[in-house]
Design a protein that fits this description.
Number of strands of chain B: 22
CATH architecture of the largest domain in chain A: Orthogonal Bundle
Helix content of chain A: 40-55%
CATH superfamily of the largest domain in chain B: FAD/NAD(P)-binding domain
Distance between the termini of chain A: 69 Å
Order of helices and strands of chain A: EEHEEHEEEHHHHHHHHHHHH
Radius of gyration of chain B: 22 Å
CATH class of the largest domain in chain B: Alpha Beta
Strand order of the largest sheet of chain A: 2-1-5-3-4
Largest sheet of chain A: 5 strands, mixed
Largest sheet of chain B: 5 strands, parallel
CATH class of the largest domain in chain A: Mainly Alpha
Shape of chain A: globular
Shape of chain B: globular
CATH topology of the largest domain in chain A: Fumarate Reductase Iron-sulfur Protein, Chain B, domain 2
CATH superfamily of the largest domain in chain A: Alpha-helical ferredoxin
Bound molecules: flavin-adenine dinucleotide, iron/sulfur cluster, FE2/S2 (inorganic) cluster
Strand content of chain A: 5-15%
Structural class of chain B: alpha/beta
Oligomer: heterodimer
CATH topology of the largest domain in chain B: FAD/NAD(P)-binding domain
Largest interface: A-B, 53 and 54 residues
Strand content of chain B: 15-25%
């Protein structure tokens, strides 16, 4: 089956024709051919100047992630014909949220730097040597252990798109790999650092990372594990944790979210004042929450009963310091 | 300085850093992309009281068809258990049994279930742990730097020359000691389990630096790889109880290895499959790997990656149907000869992992022994190379080395017209598959050698379509192809000379093992454009040669 590939070419260092522009190639795709195989065919038989990374061709080394028809995909495990039939096109671009070096090769340095930021190695607690990780203990971190560092999640991350310093999903999942390890000795320190600005609380929970991860690492789920671990550990002095606390309090008191009051508690007085222009704009469009209209829902007792039950069962309510 | 950031290279780097040395890794792919990441089945070590390292050593010697050096095998098997525990301390998690002990699965050729694993992602788990430790120890990483030359001055190592992929610039990197850990050469064959980056670069570098290569005729063909892509279905699949069937639905291994059947050593199973296929009992050039009777639970929990690979790359769900598989080139037993401290013939130059030949695998490697080799000898190389570096001065780096390397690249880029690199590579891989596969004879090997030499000639005149500086894969590949052709020639020459059958090397014209003449290692060297052949004794300590039967 002949399929037209449209590939984004870009060589920022090329003085004459840097691009970006799209070039088309016709590939005779056989049954089972992967997108990576098609790219190899193009570069080996037609245009060797096309640059892209590859190595294992079996979905385990993480080299070959690219944007295919608008989404981050691992090209060596994506078959050409079904993808083409589903999308009606075959458009190949470099990963988003990363600077292009050449064609489909992106600069992964920021990706590795984020990894290094989370101190991605076990710092065992004294006396944990020879302390086996039981089957159950392993289950809690197994998903995070599957990561192949391909970058698909970071490429699709909405928070990373607006804040390049955001720790982003891949490194967060890696962080949970250690925070969630029973042998780890620096859980608290790690959680404190992860709760700083640009950390785990900056995720807007768009769930893209989980959706586009080819290895089912579920980074968002690991971020949520980190958040609740941080709150349990008493790491509460940051906007994210305060936001969750405010949310929980608001629901407990009124049975609903008091969003204006939450902003105040999350950001504190001075930074809330900074939100006034946003508030005015929200007001103008009729989107400003009005807490004073229904301060409390009718069935508030039922809500509180739920809270009590949770408290009894899991003791999840964050401990306040002091 | 360590060339290669697979399991062996990174383990060496950690050891050197622990010894307080200023350590760097130079690697053509980012460390976690190294092909160790693809290892599935596991890593051997005698951990249980009812097992012993001596038993492991015996199985290894027997697996090697008595060609492995027993001093090295003793080192590996006796130190292995310590390394497993150390890996756990570093953060690795091996699967546990119900009593909390490290679980061990049976593997081919082993008399005891001693393969430790993390599901079917052992290599991935270990490589990532090693990478974590490399970061922890502050090892410097020159990633996406492709080494094109070893620089030897006055008979001692003085450093390397490497091309930075991002700019195309050549750099000189000086070091008191250099460890080679560049992995395998599977890509010289058409059907291979190896990554696109497993091009045997280290072997080419070694030959050009005047080092010999040892036991290159011994190429392991893995019995269960997917037909079109060569992607591996781990031996763990048979370890967990999988069957091999022919077109008549027979468990044909009962004929070839009545006692252990599917768990005979790899060379035995691969030959059996090839025989079934050649005698007309195959299924479209394959045999069938049947896992259905293991049940969905076992397959999903212990062989989940295998299931995914079979579904994605062969369109078969092993829970529902048997997977068509065939033998494919998998592992290089041969390589750069090195002693038990990984020292090569050149002072200051060490070799570890798959590119080295210590030799623990002899004529055939047991599954699960090469991750072990990479870790044990990576560590030992790191230690010895540190001691060496501490006791020596930096050797001068000749100016001419960089100039020569640059001229070589410029010469390639100047060629206007010539054949395409990739076409030549395909031809080479075809020749090796046809003429130097599982069944060999003088005539086939002779023809293969002729053809490889002819392709070598054409390679010297091949030209590039990409003249750019940055991420020029074609330029790198013409260099890689040079190494692959050298490795091919070394394999063919060694295979042609060894007139016996031993381990993975099977000569239909000499079907018997012949200890009186051939209980020795083959050494080939490159002199100009020719290869010369020599031999070296096998070290035998405790196990006298006997017949190898499964
Ligand atoms: C699919 C598969 C499954 C396997 N499963 C098992 C198993 O279950 N158990 C087992 O024991 N063994 C297994 N093996 C074998 C084992 O994985 C390898 O032998 C071992 O991982 C090799 O490790 P290494 O460190 O020597 O090389 P690799 O991991 O291959 O690393 C080579 C390194 O060298 C670098 N390099 C190469 N050339 C250059 C150059 N010119 N310049 C710079 N850098 C360079 C690469 O970038 C890479 O970092 C398997 C092998 C394969 C292919
Ligand atoms: S859920 Fe959070 S981390 Fe994941 S992609 Fe969205 S913003 Fe990024
Ligand atoms: S979490 Fe998934 S998408 Fe992100 S880097 Fe790891 S494997 Fe890739
Ligand atoms: S090439 Fe390794 S993950 Fe695709």
């Amino acid at each position: 089956m002949e399929i037209k590939f449209s590939i984004r070419r870009h060589d920022p260092m090329d003085g004459e024709n840097p691009g970006p522009y799209y070039r088309e190639y016709i590939v005779d795709a056989e049954e089972g051919m992967t997108v990576l195989e098609a790219l190899l065919k193009i570069s080996e038989e037609e245009d060797p100047t096309l640059a892209f990374r590859r190595s294992c061709r079996s979905a385990i080394c993480g080299s070959c992630a690219m944007t295919v028809n608008g989404f981050a995909r691992l090209t060596c495990s994506l078959q050409v014909i079904p993808e083409y039939q589903k999308m009606g096109a075959m458009r190949i671009e470099p990963l988003s949220n990363h600077r292009t070096i050449k064609d489909l090769v992106v600069d992964m340095a920021p990706f590795w730097e984020k990894m290094e930021k989370v101190a991605p190695f076990l710092m065992p607690a004294g006396g944990s040597e020879g302390n086996p990780v039981s089957i159950e203990d392993q289950a809690g971190i197994d998903e995070s252990q599957r990561c192949i560092m391909c970058g698909c999640c970071n490429a699709e991350c909405n928070s990373l798109e607006i804040d390049e310093r955001f720790i982003a999903p891949a490194a967060s999942a890696k962080a949970w790999r250690f925070v969630g390890d029973v042998r780890e000795g620096h859980r608290g320190k790690r959680l404190e650092r992860l709760s700083e600005e640009h950390g785990i609380w900056d995720c807007v929970r768009c769930i893209h990372c989980t959706q586009y991860c080819p290895k089912d690492v579920k980074p968002l789920k690991q971020i949520e594990s980190l958040r609740s671990a941080a709150m349990k550990e008493g790491v509460l002095d940051n906007p994210g944790a305060r936001h969750v606390e405010a949310m929980a309090d608001s629901v407990e008191r009124f049975g609903r979210l008091d969003e204006a009051a939450m902003t105040f508690r999350t950001l504190g007085f001075l930074r809330s004042v900074g939100m006034i222009p946003l508030g005015l704009r929200l007001e103008k469009h009729g989107k400003m929450p009005h807490p004073y209209i229904f301060p409390q829902i009718m069935e508030i007792d039922e809500v509180r009963a739920v809270y009590d039950e949770i408290e009894k069962k899991y003791g999840l309510k964050p401990k306040k310091e002091g | 300085m360590i060339i290669g950031a697979g399991l062996a290279g990174m383990r060496a780097a950690i050891e050197a850093a622990r010894n307080g040395l200023d350590t760097a890794l130079v690697t053509k792919v980012y460390p976690v992309r190294s092909h160790s990441v693809a290892a599935q089945g596991g890593m051997n070590a005698a951990l249980k009281e009812t097992d012993s390292w001596e038993a492991h050593a015996f199985d290894t010697v027997k697996g090697s068809d008595w060609l492995g050096d027993q001093d090295a095998i003793e080192v590996m098997c006796s130190e292995g258990p310590g390394d497993i525990l150390e890996l756990e301390g570093m953060g690795a998690i091996f699967n546990r049994d119900s009593r909390g002990h490290i679980a061990q699965r049976p593997f081919g050729g082993a008399g005891y279930p001693r393969t430790c694993y993390l599901a079917d992602r052992t290599g991935h788990a270990l490589l990532h742990v090693m990478y974590e430790q490399v970061l922890k120890h502050g090892v410097f990483i020159y990633d996406e730097w492709h080494v094109t030359r070893l620089v030897i001055e006055g008979g001692k190592v003085s450093g390397v020359i490497a091309m930075e992929l991002d700019t195309g610039k050549l750099h000189r990197l000086r070091s008191k000691s250099v460890i080679m850990a560049t992995g395998g050469y599977g890509r010289v064959y058409r059907t291979t389990t190896n990554a696109l980056s497993s091009t045997g670069d280290g072997l080419g570098l070694a030959l050009s630096a005047g080092l010999p290569l040892m036991d290159m005729e011994f190429v392991q063909f893995h019995p269960t790889v997917l037909k079109r892509t060569g992607i591996l279905m781990t031996e763990g699949a048979r370890g967990e109880g999988g069957f091999l069937l022919n077109s008549l639905g027979e468990r044909f291994m009962e004929k070839y290895a009545p006692k252990v059947k599917e768990l005979a050593s790899r060379d035995v199973v691969s030959r059996a499959e090839q025989t079934e296929i050649e005698e007309g009992r195959g299924v479209e050039g394959c045999v069938l790997l049947d896992l259905r009777h293991l049940g969905a639970d076992t397959i999903k929990s212990k062989l989940s990656q295998i299931r995914e690979l079979a579904m994605n790359f062969a369109g078969v769900d092993p829970i529902e149907a048997p997977v068509p598989v065939k033998p494919g080139a998998h592992y290089s037993m041969g390589g750069i000869p090195a002693d038990i401290d990984c020292q090569t013939e050149i002072p200051g130059l060490f070799a570890a992992g798959e590119c080295a030949c210590v030799s623990v695998h002899g004529a055939n490697r047991l599954g699960g022994n090469s991750l072990l080799e990479a870790v044990v000898f990576g560590r030992r190389a790191g230690k010895r190379a540190s001691e060496y570096a501490d006791s020596t001065e930096l050797v001068a780096f000749p100016d001419s080395a960089l100039r020569d390397a640059a001229n070589e690249v410029a010469e390639i880029l100047r060629r206007d017209e010539g054949e395409r690199v990739y076409a030549l590579r395909d031809e080479m891989a075809g020749v090796m598959e046809e003429h130097c596969g599982i069944f060999r004879n003088r005539e086939r090997l002779g023809k293969g050698l002729e053809q490889i030499r002819e392709i070598k000639e054409r390679h010297r005149r091949a030209a590039l379509a990409d003249r750019g500086d940055r991420f020029n894969a074609e330029l790198l590949h013409i260099i890689e192809l040079g190494s692959m052709l050298d490795a091919s020639e070394a394999i063919l020459v060694s295979a042609l000379h060894r007139e016996e059958s031993r381990g993975s090397h099977f000569r239909t014209d000499f079907p018997k093992r012949d200890d009186s003449k051939w209980l020795k290692h083959t050494l080939v060297r490159k002199r100009g454009n020719d290869f010369t052949v020599g031999y070296k004794d096998v070290k035998i300590t405790r196990f006298k040669p006997e017949e190898r039967k499964y």
